[in-house]
Amino acid sequence: MNKAKLLLVMFVTTLLMACGTTRTVPITGRKQSLMVSDEQVLSLSNQEYANYMKSAKLSTNTNNTAMVKRVGQKLATAVENYLRQNGMAADLVNYKWEFNLVQDKSVNAFCMPGGKIVVYEGLLPVTQNEASLAIVLGHEIAHAVARHSAEQMSKQIKQQYGTQIVGGVLSAAGMGSNTASILGALAQQGFKIRNLSYSRDHEHEADHMGLIFAAMAGYDPQVAVAFWQRMAASSGNSNQSDFWSDHPSDAKRIANIQKWMPEALKYYKK
To answer: Residue ranges per domain, the chain?
Structure first.
């Protein structure tokens, strides 16, 4: 590698390391580096959510629909109160909560960045009660509060930049602004936020945060153990949940939940 290329690599690497913002994840206190802004993520998320809801069929079961909305709103209120009380009120502008139950036999649920939450009807026979549903929704809300989608997108952008550096694609004269580079990377990758695969570390963190969010909302976190045991049992059927892709093993997940239980119970008030 000649001197010019070496200097370019060093420059772009330094730029990459300096790019973005560093924030602290609520509850866990983990530091994370993000290369995409909330505005960029929410723009993509809202567009994708709107497209999904155009084809989704809402549940016709009024009681179950009301339950999903009721549990979801209790969790959202608890999360917002926690953020306000812990100096993170500025984050609230990013959340426009919405809770929907859709006709789908899959054992699954998802939360888009910004608080758009969808529960599949196939999940309810496994949750069986409101407290267990709160464990699931707490887990999904945790993904949004912890900015896991933005973190996954940032990781992919870094990987793309790395590939460009190795291939000598970038040039000092043509890199453009940081914002343009990020938006270009997002467009080229064709991100599907709803389908981003979270890492095991993210799932571990969402389990931890979700357990505490459920307790904050007044749901007994101790139901989580039995719920995840039922989820483990359901994973062998044809409607296997997406929960199990890149996720902790059943035994490890339950062991972690039991480890966090004393912390969660401190937040639990009937």
So the answer is: 1-173+182-270
